Amino acid sequence: MKQIDHNRLDEIVLAARKAADLRAEGYREKALKIYPWICGRCAREFTHANLRELTVHHRDHNHDNNPADGSNWELLCLYCHDNEHQKQIEADRGRTDARTGRTGSATHNPFAALQSLLKQKE
Q1: Mind listing the pLDDT tens digit of every residue in the chain (122 residues)?
Q2: CA nearest 70: which of 26, 38, 39?
Q3: Phi, psi of 96 (to 5 degrees)
Q4: Global pTM value
Q5: Within a 13 Å sphere around the CA of 43, how many CA atoms are in the beta-carbon half?
Q6: What was the pLDDT predicted at 94?
Q7: Which residue, among 73, 18, 51, has the nearest Cα to 84 in the 3D structure?
Q8: What local confidence, expressed as pLDDT, does residue 68 receive?
Q9: The pLDDT value given to residue 81
Q10: What is the structure's pLDDT at 43?
Q11: CA 6, CA 121: separation in Å to the nearest integer?
């Protein structure tokens, strides 16, 4: 079995991270100039003091799709950004249908017999 060159692997990972950081820095700066510093989901406002908590979300989840007009970006706070990606992960796992928003697992309706219970009370 061939030995893994951990030093070479570390170099590759480091280079990939540096490239991603440079790419992100470019579109983040552009997005911050185009859009107001407000979270697109919760409407939280940001200032220079807390701007590091405002992130750029790629609507199509493709970090290489960075049109100059910013049409693939939206500014989201850290929490809303994490939530958006969690929804995508769950949709990919089949837990929800991203197109309809319906979940595939919950089928119980706790109020199904409510109408008949209310009629019995009368």
Answers
A1: 788 888 999 999 999 988 877 776 788 889 999 999 999 999 999 999 999 999 999 999 898 898 989 999 999 999 999 999 898 888 888 865 555 555 555 556 667 777 777 777 66
A2: 26
A3: -140, 160
A4: 0.59
A5: 0
A6: 80
A7: 73
A8: 86
A9: 94
A10: 95
A11: 73
Number of domains in the chain: 1
Q: Is residue 23 part of a domain?
A: yes
Write out the residue range of the structural domain in which residue 51 sits: 6-104
Task: Tell the residue number behind the tokens 């070479």, with chain if given.
Answer: 8
Q: What is the CATH number of the domain that holds 42?
A: 3.40.1800
114 lies in some domain:
no
In a domain? residue 119: no
Q: What is the rounded distance in angstroms from the CA atom of residue 95 to the CA atom of residue 109?
A: 18
- Give the 3-state DSSP-derived string for the chain, with helices as H, strands as E and coil as C: CCCCCHHHHHHHHHHHHHHHHHHHHHHHHHHHHHCCCECCCCCCECCCCCHHHEEEEECCCCCCCCCCCCCCEEEEEHHHHHHHHHHHHHHHCCCECCCCCCECCCCCCCCCCHHHHHHHHC
Whether residue 120 is contained in a domain is answered as: no
